[in-house]
């Protein structure tokens, strides 16, 4: 859909106490065909909302009369069909997660990059259209269920099965669009930087405790490797922002998994975790971007290592059934609660106090970019097994 078509009847309210920013955003948005309203305070913005019912609000986090989180909660409570993009000059991951959990549809840092601002707004409006349509379908579903109460049991069963299938499909589409609108890759990269930083910290602590000279070179080499990895992650984030193509090479998944295991070797050794790596046959290479695939397994291994007790067991098995490559990552931790099985793949859901809930959604999203998937194959109090499937043959234009 062309932006101009989307914006024919679309009103955007800009709430910012800086007149220069109001003027700049008004010019940019009006050129794209949007109707633009402006406000300098949260109170003025809420008054404009009541009077004009705009589809979208672009609001600064720091306002003279109240902070953006407070205003956001009030907007979502009174105007649920109005979507909100938050902007701030002091952004961090914790604030972004807090705002998204409170109902923000997007999170932008100042100063604005005018090259992508309109695309972000268009993405949020498209997401709004999908979710409102989904709500209408849900309402229609409830109406139909009332009408078919007089039908026989067989017909009710068939309708229920089809309705549940439609609900799952709609939920999948809405979840995928929301993750894409947020910029899953950017969020994933920020999340992934924690892994090499953790390794650098551990090796630095070991150096500070005094080690053999032969070990110093090995530790320094690993630290430099992790620094290079951070640099690669940041370059990937920049590439995504500039919409450059990913680097696709012939990649062997067994090597990617072994490299990911090496990242966690300090934690594995310190906690005496027993690792079993089983790859009974040669794994055929696939056309892929190595950095993306590494994200899948560093996320899965990080979850497993954090879950395992002292002396726990971590098992990795790679097989190549017809047309597929399957990687199973199993641990003997305490398992995943049944009520959390669906939620763990949703953005921002986490059972950990410091977790951001980004790792598993990003892992599944990347696998699906390669027409594969990440699922929980089995879980119990005796442990959990995640199954990653990737087709051997990658269609052209996967990315």
From TrEMBL:
Keywords: Coiled coil, Kinase, Phosphoprotein, Transferase
InterPro entries from the UniProt entry: CheY-like_superfamily, HATPase_C_sf, HATPase_dom, His_kinase_dom, HisK_dim/P_dom, HisK_dim/P_sf, Sig_transdc_His_kin-like_C, Sig_transdc_resp-reg_receiver
Catalytic activity: ATP + protein L-histidine = ADP + protein N-phospho-L-histidine
Residues in coiled coil: 127-179
Domain annotation Histidine kinase: ranges: 188-394
Domain Response regulatory: 11-125
UniProt GO MF annotations: phosphorelay sensor kinase activity
Modified residues (4-aspartylphosphate): 60
EC number: 2.7.13.3
SMART domains assigned: HATPase_c (SM00387), HisKA (SM00388), REC (SM00448)
Stored Pfam families: HATPase_c, HisKA, Response_reg
PANTHER family: HYBRID SIGNAL TRANSDUCTION HISTIDINE KINASE C, TWO-COMPONENT HISTIDINE KINASE
UniProt protein name: histidine kinase
Lineage: Bacteria, Pseudomonadati, Thermodesulfobacteriota, Desulfuromonadia, Geobacterales
